[in-house]
Structure formats: structure tokens, C-alpha cells
Amino acid sequence: MLSHTGIWAAIDRLAADHDMTASGLARRAGLDPTTFNRSKRTAGDGRPRWPSTESIAKILTATATDVGAFLGLAGTARDEAVRRQVPLLGLAQAGAGGFFDDGGFPAGTGWEEIAFPGTGENVFALKVAGDSMMPLYRDGDRIIVARDADCRRGDRVVVKTREGEVMAKILVRRTPRTVDLASLNPDHPGRSLPATEIEWMARIIWASQ
């Protein structure tokens, strides 16, 4: 059975097998270079977006790949994705110093891990604590965030400030000077932060509830 994760992973693998990025593959097929960007694989509300049959047909033609071989890539990628483990941190750990490298990814080894049915390199999980993220996320839920995903207006994001505060919000507006955030919980206020105070921002791409 085809899955959203498997199809997108197959596109990435097809590109890699021909020594190209996903953007390069799109360009070779005569498509817009951003056709297969990661930011286009999910909608702003987290719903999955699927590549069009036309775009898939064009990349198969451009790489002289038959449908059966492509579906084989999708099945293999799906099976690998099901087995993938990503680091799991508590929110308190995420806010403390020394737990992230310069790229904003958990540093070192020995983390608790959870299975994640997806792709992407700079991906990790956070365990929700308290009620500040209700009603979407409850105490004990696990959310998966992607540090390399584009954050756009309306996205659910996790933000870490340079002071060590970690919060899950909705991105309302982002300018070179300020970042405006709305609260997931109507009982908690939104925030407006100077851009210089933000250490990193990651988009929430999945939740285990």
C-alpha cells in the first residue's frame, strides 16, 4: 500500500540515485525547482500534500525509470521510515543549555527514542508537559519537530529563546525584527519577540497522542 511518506521518500531516493537533489530532479523534468521542496509536502495545518501524477510521470521519463521500479523505491522507503527512531527530549531538557549542537539538533547520544513514520535529517521529538498546548496537545503527548522545515504563517511551531524558554505556538508573523506568535491554548497569551532573542524555530510536523 502506498503512503504519503513512501512516495515522497521515493522521489528523494530517485534524485539521489541520479546524483541530484530533489530540486535538481524537478528541474531536469521541466518542473518548477520548488515542486518537491519539503515545505510543499504538508499543508500549513499539518495535512499531507501529495505530488501530482503528472509530476511523477515527468520525473520517471526524465530518469528513464519505470513505474514498477519507482513503486519499489516507495515500498522500501516506507519500510525504512516505519523503523526510524528519533531522539526524544522533555521540554525542560530542550530549554537547558548544552543539549543542542550549533544546528539546533540534540547533541550526543543516550537519548530516549521514539519511532517516527517520516523522513528528514534534522528531526526530533519533544514530550509535552503541562496544559499550555491544550486543546491540541495534552500533557504527555509527543510532538515531532523539524529544524530544516520552512516555517510559514499559520504553522504550529516550537520556539526556543536565547534565555532557554521553549514554547509551542502558532506563527502569526515573522519579520527581520520581530516574530509574533499566537497561543495554542486560548487561556494563555500570545507573544511578540525580537528576532534576535530567538535561538531557533522548528515546525511541528507530527504528533503522537
Characterize the structure shown:
The structure is a single chain. The protein is of the alpha+beta class. Helix content is 26%, strand content 27%. The chain has five helices and nine strands. Strands 2-1-3-4-9-5-6-7-8 form a nine-stranded mixed β-sheet. Helix 1 crosses helix 4 (67-83). The chain is elongated, with a radius of gyration of 18 Å. It starts with a helix and ends with a strand. 23% of the residues are buried.
User: Which overall shape is indicated by the principal axes computed on the Cα atoms?
Assistant: elongated
Q: Estimate the helix proportion, in percent.
A: 25-40%
Radius of gyration: 18 Å
Query: Which percent band covers the strand fraction?
Result: 25-35%
Counting helices, strands and paired strands, the structural category is alpha+beta
Overall mean pLDDT = 79
Order of helices and strands: HHHHEHEEEEEEEE
Spatial gap, N to C terminus = 24 Å
Low-confidence residue ranges: none
Report strand order across the widest sheet.
Answer: 2-1-3-4-9-5-6-7-8
Question: Helices, strands, pairings?
Answer:
Elements: H1 4-17, H2 22-28, H3 53-63, H4 67-83, E1 85-90, H5 91-95, E2 112-115, E3 123-127, E4 142-146, E5 156-161, E6 166-174, E7 178-183, E8 191-194, E9 198-208
Parallel strand pairs: 1-3
Antiparallel strand pairs: 1-2, 3-4, 4-9, 5-6, 5-9, 6-7, 7-8
Helix pairs in contact: 1-4
